[in-house]
Amino acid sequence: MPDATGLELIAQRVREAVAGDAVTGTLVQREQATLEVAPGSVRDVLAYLRDGDDEPWPQLMSLHGCDYLPEEPRLGVHYQLLSMTRCDRLNVRTRLGVDDPHLPTVVDLFPTADFQEREVYDMFGVFFDGHPDMRRILLPEDYEGYPQRRDFPMGGEPVLFTFNEDQYPRWYD
Amino acid sequence: MEVIRSGPLDMRSRGLRAQQMLRGDIEGDDLEKYVEERVLLTRMENAQNWARANALFPLGFGLACCAIEMITVIGSPRNDLSRFGAEVIRFTPRQADLLILSGRVSIKMAPIIRRLYDQMLEPKWVIAMGACSSTAGMFNNYAVVAGADKFLPVDVYVPGCPPRPEALIFGINRLQDKIKGEPGMGWRERYNAKGTGEVA
After folding, report:
1. pLDDT tens-digit profile of B109-163?
2. Residue B188: C-alpha distances to residues A39, B92, B129, B158, B194 (Å)
3. Measured between CA atoms, how close is A153 to chain B, in angstroms?
4. A152 and chain B in contact, CB less than 8 A
């Protein structure tokens, strides 16, 4: 991972190349460098990091969602980039509100993002605008709700023990 | 009953003797003696069930991690399920008569399993192998059906996570007992507690 200085340099280059308000913050935590990006400019920042930078990050290793429930904005989408020439990784993170979250797709930049964006849509309900096939991927197509959000009920059935047996009348039916 | 192994010549003379009996060439005391020694009487259903129990055709179908154990049972010479006549895996449900649910049943998979079950010809049997397909097991959540018996009839439940191959073989043996019409009484047999069935 780039150290704090290297990350600031990358952030400065992104600000100059894409937009002044594209990068909202930087974070180096547990040797992981994270570039925090405004949701509207995710695509431009990733396009710049893939092609425009003088030491580019050509591979997208992972794209995943996250729900930080007490914090606002709640949802997060993480992109992890890999450069084999640098032997290094860079995280790009964006934060979204839970009401009607939309992000621009990066499938045309990184084809591997196809299924991963569908999985984030499936589990967290983040819509990726411009995705060629925005459907659920793991859950049934008629499933309602986004189960990896933290306010989604766990589901399943109550497990019976002797101490809570009387809370479920006629459980033997 | 004493079993007498005989050589090929003896087989030949026995075959000739059977031919003679069917033609009606043996008469009197010879015939009675022959029938006593050689003919076994049973009912049609029992013979049919005996054949069914010793020629189970499992469907080649795995769901999750239990499938690895299931494969070592029905596919490997170490456990050698052909000792019990149940090792011929069929990869089409039209030719199979035993469905082993080996693994967790997700709600997306449930209609597909039900369709496979419906495509199998009668008579057909189902073994729920492992904790997940018997109940939801450790995957008691939004994505997994809590027990495959919610959408198809299950004959034998094999507990374990995953069950050892011996456990699955034991389950298949209990299923064979059931097919033969002599189901085991489980713990009631061990504790000599017959006649203590639960009243629903």
Report:
1. 999 999 999 999 888 999 999 999 998 888 888 889 988 888 999 999 999 999 9
2. 65, 38, 22, 18, 6
3. 8
4. yes
